[in-house]
């Protein structure tokens, strides 16, 4: 019988999740490792060498670590759920002129639900991952806080987790820097793992060419949307584009036209297959609306609360004033913000704590 109970650890085969599992094993938990198969790499049509998660090498790396340290390991096939939810949403959002964040969708609706379901089946009290975040109890709620290593903090991608998930989640890497985790991997006897490069690609778009992925997933898409107009904000036509789903807010490169000065995508209008271009200053906004709010720290955001807001994973937080309207939040920025993209996540912070998060409208 373990000292601290049974814990199900998501193991991708990478350095972070492997070290997390070994740390918890050393701390006295009865660890069960689980690797989730979300996607067949070959389905992407990419002929490059497999990288990142969801490939056989990663599965074998995770299993080897479990075997060498004497705990169980399973592979869980969730390709059907992943495809139905995450990939369909990814395609639908681009066709609606928005920019999706599939990793947030996957965490919120697929991976943690799959972890909890399997944890219950295996009588595991807790679940764990190798994310660089912390969870603590605040009054009657469980709160996600930033990881100690701000350069690796992943609180932004976990805003969608509900209280049931957070109450059972442990994140052993939250109090460490990445350099310390690499040293731990060396100390555990995995020098190759310590040197393993990290993948920031979308798992089902391994070549980072989401446009080609859309063309393969939606029959006739390229012919249907090709030849729409590039316009200015006043409606002036200044050229033709290759289809509105193939552009994102803030994009400057890849417009395939010379305008005599840098031009940026400032708006996408799917109903007319038009893409609005403008100067960099035209990307500036002072407000936005965020929907599908998931509350983390509070039951309801206090009126006119000042907070810091992140609109992209790697963006710097910006001070803003929040006003919650049922399941939406009106955000008034205290300084101009560039490149707000509908479909992306917005996460609200009070110090290091996540207040709530949602989808930009």
Indicate the topology.
Layout: E1 6-10, H1 15-26, E2 30-37, H2 56-68, E3 72-77, H3 79-95, H4 102-121, E4 126-128, E5 133-138, E6 141-146, H5 163-166, E7 169-170, H6 178-187, H7 191-195, H8 210-217, H9 221-225, E8 229-231, E9 237-240, E10 264-269, E11 274-278, E12 284-295, E13 305-310, E14 318-325, E15 328-338, E16 345-350, E17 353-360
Parallel strand pairs: 1-2, 1-4, 2-3, 4-7, 8-11
Antiparallel strand pairs: 5-6, 8-9, 10-11, 12-15, 12-17, 13-14, 13-16, 14-15, 16-17
Helix pairs in contact: 1-6, 3-4
Q: Can you walk through the features of this model?
A:
The chain has 361 residues and is an alpha/beta fold. The chain is 26% helix and 29% strand. The chain has 3 domains: 6-130 and 172-195, Rossmann fold (3-Layer(aba) Sandwich); 222-278, SH3 type barrels; 283-360, Translation factors (Elongation Factor Tu (Ef-tu), domain 3, Beta Barrel), CATH 2.40.30.10. The chain has helices at 15-26, 56-68, 79-95, 102-121, 163-166, 178-187, 191-195, 210-217, 221-225; strands at residues 6-10, 30-37, 72-77, 126-128, 133-138, 141-146, 169-170, 229-231, 237-240, 264-269, 274-278, 284-295, 305-310, 318-325, 328-338, 345-350, 353-360. Helix 1 crosses helix 6 and helix 3 packs antiparallel against helix 4. The N and C termini lie far apart (50 Å).
């Amino acid at each position: 019988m373990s000292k601290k109970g049974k814990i199900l650890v998501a193991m991708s085969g990478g350095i972070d999740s492997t070290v997390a599992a070994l740390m918890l094993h050393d701390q006295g938990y009865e660890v069960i490792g689980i690797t989730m198969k979300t996607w067949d790499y070959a389905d992407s049509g990419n002929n490059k060498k497999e990288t990142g998660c969801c490939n056989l090498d990663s599965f074998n790396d995770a299993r080897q670590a479990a075997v060498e340290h004497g705990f169980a390991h399973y592979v869980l096939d969730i390709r059907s759920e992943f495809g139905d939810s995450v990939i369909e949403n990814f395609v639908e959002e681009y066709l609606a002129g928005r920019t999706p964040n599939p990793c947030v969708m996957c965490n919120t609706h697929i991976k943690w639900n799959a972890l909890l379901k399997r944890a219950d089946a295996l009588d595991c009290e807790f679940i764990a991952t190798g994310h660089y975040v912390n969870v603590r109890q605040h009054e009657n709620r469980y709160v996600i806080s930033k990881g100690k290593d701000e350069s690796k903090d992943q609180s932004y991608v976990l805003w969608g987790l509900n209280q049931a998930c957070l109450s059972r989640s442990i994140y052993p890497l939250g109090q460490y820097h990445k350099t310390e985790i690499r040293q731990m991997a060396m100390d555990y006897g995995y020098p190759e793992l310590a040197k393993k490069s990290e993948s920031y690609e979308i798992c089902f778009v391994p070549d980072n060419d989401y446009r080609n992925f859309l063309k393969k997933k939606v029959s006739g898409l390229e012919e249907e949307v090709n030849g729409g107009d590039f316009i200015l904000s006043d409606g002036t036509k200044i050229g033709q584009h290759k289809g509105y789903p193939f552009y994102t807010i803030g994009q400057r490169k890849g417009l395939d036209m010379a305008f005599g000065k840098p031009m940026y995508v400032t708006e996408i209008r799917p109903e007319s297959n038009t893409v609005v271009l403008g100067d960099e200053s035209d990307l500036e906004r002072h407000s936005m609306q965020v929907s599908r709010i998931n509350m983390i720290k509070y039951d309801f955001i206090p009126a006119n609360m000042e907070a810091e807001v992140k609109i992209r994973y790697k963006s710097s937080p910006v001070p803003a004033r929040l006003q919650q309207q049922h399941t939406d939040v009106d955000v008034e920025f205290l300084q101009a913000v560039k490149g707000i993209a509908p479909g992306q996540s917005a996460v609200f912070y009070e110090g290091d704590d996540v207040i709530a998060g949602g989808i930009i409208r």
